[in-house]
Amino acid sequence: MKTPLTASRRLLGLTLLVLCCAGRFIPAHALSLAPATCTELAQNGGFEAGGLGWQQFSAQGYELVSDFNPRTGSLGIYLAGVNNADDRLSQPIIVPAAALTVTLSAWWFLATAEIAGTFDTMTVSLLGPGGAPLADLLTVDNSATVGIWDEIVLDLTAYAGQTVVIQFAARTDANNISDFYLDDVSVMACAAIVTPTATATSTPSPTPTVTPTATATRTATQTATPTAPVTATPTATRTAISTATNGATQTVTVTSCPTVTPTATPHKVFARYYLPYLSITGGSQ
Question: Which of 7, 34, 67, 70 has the highest Cβ tally under 10 A?
Answer without folding.
Answer: 70
